[in-house]
Amino acid sequence: MKNFFYLEGAYLIIGGIILLVTLFVSTRPFMAKGAWKKGLFWVSVVLAVLIGAHYKITTQRMKTVQAAFENGKTILCESRMQRKAAQVVYVKKSNEWFLKDDNFVSPNYVRPFFSARCILK
Q1: How far apart are CA 88 and CA 79, in angstroms?
Q2: Does the reported pTM lie above 0.85?
Q3: Quick check: helix, strand or coil at residue 48?
Q4: Cβ(77)–Cβ(118) under 8 Å?
Q5: Of 47, 23, 45, 46, which Cα lies nearest the Cα of 35?
Q6: 44 Cβ neighbours under 8 A, 6+ residues apart
Q7: Which of 26, 28, 46, 54 has the least CB density, counted as fewest CB within 10 Å?
Q8: Mean pLDDT of 20-46
Q9: pLDDT of residue 48
Q10: Residue 92 and residue 10: Cα distance in Å, rounded?
């Protein structure tokens, strides 16, 4: 749960904006009385389910990637430093990479890679 706000922060902000739009639209004069209650309830339920599912899927992928890395498998991480055709960095334990918290770190590479943004090869 420590990474929840880090992983889902942007989606929580977007969800808040969606709730504000729902509140604005459902309180207009052409809407039925009490529409704002139903609207906010159902939009909140849908957003909670979607954000919760995204968090669960992301944390499961992180665990899978970290376990595979510990077993010596190759992990693919996107490098946004290079805007060329080869934007993938191959992370492997035998290439001096190690896992520090949830980040892949190497003394030979400038920046770490968050395991949520990597996949198994």
Answers
A1: 6
A2: no
A3: helix
A4: yes
A5: 23
A6: 19
A7: 28
A8: 92
A9: 96
A10: 30
